Amino acid sequence: MGRPAVRRFGTYALIGTAIAAGAIAACAKKQGITPPPVVVPGNAVVVGNRIEWTTDRPARTSVRYGTRSSGNLDHMAYPNAANRGDRAFAQSHSVALLDLTAGRSVYFQTVNEIAGFPTVYSGVDSFTATTGAPARLLTSTMIHIGFGDSHLITMPNTGKRFLIDSGERNAESSVVTYLNGHGVTRVDAMMATHTHLDHMGGVIGGFGNDMNGVVWDFPPDVLFDSPTKSSPSAGSSAYQEFLRSVPPATRRVVLQRGQSSGDVADLRLDPDVRIVVLNSGTPPNYLFTGHDGTDTNNESIVLRFSYGDVDFVIGGDAEDANEGSIVQAFAAADLEVEFAKVHHHGLPDASSSAWVNVLKPRVAFIPNTQLVWNGNLAEAVSESSGRMTGIGAHVYAVDDAPALGRPRPPYTVPVRNGPQFNISFVTDGVSYEVRLEVATQSVPLKPDTTNECGQHADASAKPRVH
Is 411 helix (H, G, I), strand (E, B) or coil? Predict the structure, then answer.
């Protein structure tokens, strides 16, 4: 079998921060100061669905690309995940593009990072794809639903869909509109990570009717729950409504910490995807605080998914205590991931340094948006975002996704009412990429006033937000 067709490109012209870095270096040299190194990308080669190139010094790399125009690079692809090659600094680079169609133009640029210096972006080039996308992709999409969480996971072999959280009560229509608009006709498994209404609300829908919510719009085979509910959750009318809302044909399955798809049949959604329950309910040795929903947040179900060489974690509002308990209970090697959903909306009481340094994610999603935030979102999430970018992770938020891997601590937010996005993490089990889609579903403009957690304070006051 012959080698795939290869197309070579000329040496890239550096743009953006590369130009700035060059100017800084020239100025420093004149003053007798050792200039910072500037990465120079070598010739690019296209081999099948992979972009290959070299740099003149070790760099951590990725590829921005798109298929509509040179000005719309809405994908970010990363190197193979085996042995954490996606985080490695090297001089030879190879990145697979997972969203190609044979005969269609592809526009791309390489992203080259060295610690402590500006990122270098190559000029945008293009080629015509000669191959299509891999057949078996796992997709995890952060659905834009206003305030709160909603994540849809589509399995690679079975095509089964797992919906985690559905935002506030009035976000039900946002989730349903998204699902209908993307050809989803059934949801096989569903879960509310914990009982706060910005996660469970859309599952059960509006007041006064136990037969509504996303759980009735798309009745799943199984609805996952946790074993304990701290006060006031256990006696809350919303949680009782949740229990009454389970459709007759849906199995309610209580997950226990430490279980996995190897021993829980209902978690076996795909033969090639392993799911481990990192937390479900009150963590071991947890000391209750009784403070503004903290106990309920720390009951959040946290799941780790593994497909081939690629791993990721999705939990609800787990705070430092929950994350710390997980770090103590599981081996570090069993917690490393390529992708992490940032807990508790990116607020500073979660995503501790200990948690981030064990997970070592390359990609992080923040389910939060200035569109519905009452205070300064940039300030609210700057600590957790900074911890992520501090280890080299690329952070994507609902309304800051256009940054597409342009690392910039601290987190910055565009103007309110700017473009909003559904953001997907996609993997073939070998490599992975992030995809952006402008959200067209309408979303609630502010948190549901019936939220049992109360109103959200200004971020400068270090709010206890649920």
Answer: coil
Residue 293 pLDDT greater than 90, yes or no: no
Together in a domain, 100 and 162: no
Q: What angle do CA 301, 306, 307 make, to 5 degrees?
A: 140
- Listed in sequence order, the residues at least 6 apart from 378 whose beta carbon sits closer than 8 Å to its beta carbon are 370, 410, 411, 412, 413
Residue 57's nearest CA partner among 33, 80, 70, 41 is 41
Q: How far is CA 291 from the centre of its chain?
A: 28
- Per-residue pLDDT tens digits for 199-239: 999 999 987 678 889 999 999 999 999 998 765 656 678 89
Minimum mean pLDDT range among 100-104, 205-209, 345-349:
205-209
Q: 402: helix, coil or strand? A: helix
**312: nearest Cα among 112, 115, 78:** 78
CA geometry: angle at 402 spanning 396 and 403, to 5°? 65
Interval 29-35 mean pLDDT: 51
The continuous run of DSSP H or E covering 152 comes out as strand 151-154
Q: Read off φ and ψ for residue 416, nearest 5 degrees.
A: -60, 145
Which own/partner pairs from 151-155 qualify as long-range (CB within 8 Å, at least 24 positions apart)?
151/314, 151/341, 151/367, 152/178, 152/179, 152/184, 153/305, 153/314, 155/269, 155/270, 155/273
Range of the domain at 49: 8-128
What 3-state class would DSSP assign to 305? strand
CA 162, chain centre distance (Å): 15
Round to whole Å and give the CA distance between 120 and 114.
9
Please state, as a whole number, how many other Cβ atoms lie within 10 Å of the Cβ of residue 431.
27
Does residue 79 sit in the same domain as residue 176? Answer: no
Q: Which of 102, 128, 154 is the last residue of a domain?
A: 128
| Domain boundary pick from 83, 98, 128 | 128
Report the predicted TM-score, pTM, of the whole model to 2 decimal places.
Answer: 0.89
CA-based end-to-end distance of the chain:
57
| DSSP H or E stretch at residue 25 | helix 17-30
CB 26 within 8 Å of CB 14: no
Three-state secondary structure call for residue 100: coil
Choose among 88, 192, 104, 207: nearest CA to 148.
192
**Using one digit for the tens of pLDDT, what is the confidence trace for 137-193?**
999 999 999 888 999 999 999 999 999 999 999 999 999 999 999 999 999 999 999
